[in-house]
Structure formats: C-alpha cells, structure tokens
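Suppose you are handed a protein chain with no further information: no name, no annotation, nothing but its sequence. What can you learn? This example shows the usual starting point.
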Amino acid sequence: NTLELILKRKDVVFFPATGRTRTSMARIIGNSFTDLFGGIERVPGVYQQGLMVFDLQGKLIYERTLDEETLALACTVSRRLKCAFVCYSGERIYCEDPLNKHVVDMRKYNDHPEPFEQGLHLLPSKGLAVHKVIILAEKEEIDKVRPTIEATLEGVATVTQAVETMLEVL
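A reasonable first move is to predict its three-dimensional structure. Written in structure tokens, the prediction is:
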C-alpha cells in the first residue's frame, strides 16, 4: 500500500482533515490505515469541519459544539420546513426517523445514523453534546429552504454545504 509506505517514513506527518467523524473516515480508508497509528483512538486529524481536532497522539485538543438553544432552533426550523435532519455527537450520528429516505441515503457515504426518537433537541439533556446538524432534502428543496435556515440561524451558527442534498449547521 503506497499510503502505508509513505506514512512509515519518519519525515512524513499525515494529518487528515474532513467533514466526517474520525470513525467514519476510518471506515472509508480501512483498518490498515488506523493500525498504522495504533488504532482509531490514536489517529490524528481535523474532523467535522474543524469541530473536533486530535493531536499526533490522537488526543482531543479542540472541540466546539452547538449550544442547546442553537440546536433547538436548528431542529425547530428543520421540522417546520419538513426537512429530515441528523445530529453529530462525537463519533455518533443520531436521527429521529431512521426510515426517512434522506437518512437512509447517508449509508452511501458509509454513515449510519442511530435512532433517537425522543427528539434530537433533547440530546444535551441526555449528556450528549452536538457538534453539528445536517439538514437533508432533495436539491430543489435545499435550494428553497436555505435562505430561511440561514436567516433564522444568522449570528448563532454557520450554514455550509458540501453536498447538494445536505446543509450543515455548525
């Protein structure tokens, strides 16, 4: 494996940067990659658009989460606009409706949201910090609702888009 040979050289430092969680990135790249670092818990990198940063020993050195009010606002506006949404909490992804077409479609990215039917706005009350919310819909619907979402969250969160069927609230 070329990547393995490069990483084993002492003068090369590999530091992944992605919108994915560390676990999701490892699923895509494979165990041989994480084994080079001594396991997933030791892989460095910038994950979830910089919301979680791990140093060269795999220790969490920076983390940013959504406050409860912003999370509740993102959940409320998503429901009002009839969009599906998921929450990223550490290495896990939670959803309210695991059978929603857009949530199921996340599997093609090798992400598997777990059901949390009580309401994603309640994650913090269960001791689960939320790093970001992803709002899911067809491209045309995302294009239509994005201005409303941005206006509603202006000044409290950033809305980004890497995939045409997803808006990310950071």
